[in-house]
Amino acid sequence: MNPQTLKKSEAASSNHHADIQQLIRQYGCGPVPITGVEHAFYDRHIVFDNVMSPNAVGARERFEAAARSIRDILSQRWIATEETYQREDAKRVYYLSMEFLIGRSLINNITNLLLAQLIPKFAERKDLDWHELLEEEPDAGLGNGGLGRLAACFLDSMATMQIPAMGYGLRYEYGIFKQIIQDGWQKEQPDNWLRRGDPWEVARPHEKVEVSLNCSFEVCGGSLRAVPGKESRLIGVPYDRPIVGFGGKTINTLRLWEAAAHDYFNFEEFSGGDFVGAVAETLEAESLTRVLYPDDSTSKGQGLRFVQEYFLVACSLADLIRRFRQSNDDWNLLPEKAAIQLNDTHPTMSVLELMRILLDDAELSWEKAWDLTQRTLGYTNHTLLPEALEKWPVEWFRALLPRHLEIIYEINGRLLIDVRTRYPGDEEKVQRISLIEEGETQHVRMANLAIVGSHCTNGVAAIHSRLLRTHTVKDLAEMFPERFSNKTNGVTQRRWLQMCNPTLSKLITDAIGDSWVTDLSELEKLRPLAEDRGMQDEFRHAKRCAKVAFADWLHRTTGEVVDPDSIFDCQIKRIHEYKRQLLNALRVLILYRRLRENPTLEMAPRTFFFSGKAAPAYRLAKVIIKFINNLAGTIDGDPLMRGRMKVLFLPDYCVSQAERLIPASDVSNQISTAGFEASGTSNMKFMMNGALTLGTRDGATIEMAEAAGEENFFLFGLTAEQVADSRSYYNPYWHYEHEKETRDALDMIFTNQLSCYEPGAFSPIRDALLSRGDYYMHLADLGSYLEADLLVRELYADPHAWARKALLNVASSGKFSSDRTIAEYAADIWKVEPCPVTFD
Ligand SMILES: *Cc1c(COP(=O)(O)O)cnc(C)c1O
């Protein structure tokens, strides 16, 4: 390397470190001495991590160097955070989740470390294409959708609020599949996100834990199969990722477990003979954490998933109990030092594993162990869909976890005595409450186990918590009413407003200051400003900037052209019948037919965006994707529609894509059949970003409309009660026969006018909507959807009235911060306090 250049860049970089030091002081990251930062920053990583000249490296190396540099900045603070928790012997929250849908971390960590304003300067000095560098970071897609994203938002809020918390999950080598669209059909490709390593994680092999199973594994037809009876031991190796709280004061840890075979490094055994066999065994054990299950709405016979769930539980509990025992020899203190939250039933084996530890390892009495277990655990329910409630075959427990099955039987025996005492003679109730579901084969009801084995069960929106209590688990809620509560979901405004929507964020901060970043209720201060014409114009300008930015990105990466002056009308979420993308597509089809029949019809230009993945085995969901794509193609091919209407299915929905599209949206479609969406969280992201909601009275959308005032929402359709009450007589044919627009649209589909190259491709849609009775009641809500849509278009014709409502929505979105949700969990369920990082 030219010494001249080296000198120059050193000078530039020491100047730059002064900037960082000053910023860190200014924002009160505390007295952390960032020693060695002069050497630690960017260039060091470029040169010494790669042993390459800075001129020779590519964008990927530049991303890695940037990420490593940011990790350097937070490392000492990260260590100090853990040391503080140990010194204070603070009560900790352990958030157990099979999914963490993290997305990208670089820009998020920079934002939360308050380094964002430094970046343009830095990039300029280094002559870096910053946007190209950011695009090099793959999404950490370790989740399917809302449940996994909620876990990620919670980690952000807990770190920001300085709560001693740790996330526990699995380090899937392959995250949620990449979706590509071929001839309109979804195709799945593996997401090998770790192929080039991950610059954020730190492997901690010395903190590995051992898990015993009464089974081993064999590869069978290319996939892994559990073989019962042959005892084996797995090793869980933790990989830690930093979770940066806003302001950089607290750096919490997300600990992800990777499965390795026992005696991974036992070369003696290898050399002893069956080298190939030993290597094969290693490979098999490792593949336990190879891949995330890509389905969030059914739970069928997946033996490997069962073992994955136990592996998460066994590793995490061994780890947290070890930590507890390092500073406590009194087991009675466990509930005062640890609060374990189960994100859905996936980690419910925690009830059994904790009982096993307290009974067999700690040698406590049943009563003592049970009391400690219940007081330590909390359970969050996420769904009312019966097919999503987990039930594992008793036989699997018998074969793989026989000791845990004994514990299940003992819990159940005591539970049912209690039921019979309280409700003498009511054997049907006994059957409904029992942890064991009888039938051709017996199953363990994991939701019942979670409710019985914990002190708190919560739903994720008011309507969901109510339906959970009054329908889904009615008997248990009547028996233990004090255990049930609601914690309405939220999202972190750091990622979902500040980071992803810089223009709107600046407008808000200029108007009311920046305290909304850590206290979203501050947005209330925008309410009076919504009436101000100047503010309305500035909002419209901010929205247009976001739309242009999105249109530019789309054009750059796909060549697709969209008009930023058209209404951006979005529905982005997993593809599922209950979420009713099909209802949206029928609306679009009817609007299209109206325009075609009456080309002089006044209708503001509109772009309809769809995005979302279908579970690979969910046939109808894949047909719906194909249908949307064919509809898009038909409209695209119609010259009459040019400049008036466009439909786009954006492939590969993921966190990064949501961050790009949500700020640019005018209309948010939240149109699930009422009573089916537990909460929804994309509804909240849209609201914060000033989109207006066109939606049904379901999930948290109900509370959003309450906060903003129904007059500022476009609500339509049957309520959950009406859905339930009309089910017995609901007849989709009635709508087909009596509603001309509905009939004409459906006939167009049924006569292959949208599938002339694949006739019959959409017959599953006919089956679902007519012959199978339209379980999700699309046709019941289509008429009122179109009426509400008309109101949307009328309002859009008055730009200031639109901006006013959008601003009122932003002003009312304060409740939907995950900071508020976490404050409620902390106070009501976990009883934890913040523990600010201090130094010895
Ligand atoms: C927020 C989010 C979700 C949840 O969306 P819903 O519309 O609430 O189902 C799913 N996936 C991603 C990538 C998200 O960011």
Automatic annotation (TrEMBL):
SUPFAM superfamilies xref list: UDP-Glycosyltransferase/glycogen phosphorylase
Q: Which Pfam families match?
A: Phosphorylase
Is Glycosyltransferase there in the keyword field?
yes
Q: Which Gene3D superfamilies match?
A: Glycogen Phosphorylase B (3.40.50.2000)
Q: What is its EC number?
A: 2.4.1.1
Q: Which cofactor does it need?
A: pyridoxal 5'-phosphate
Location in or out of the cell: Cytoplasm
Gene Ontology MF terms: glycogen phosphorylase activity; pyridoxal phosphate binding
Q: Which residues carry this modification: N6-(pyridoxal phosphate)lysine?
A: 685
Tell me which family the UniProt entry assigns to this protein: Belongs to the glycogen phosphorylase family.
The protein's name is Alpha-1,4 glucan phosphorylase
Q: What's the source species for this entry?
A: Blastopirellula sediminis
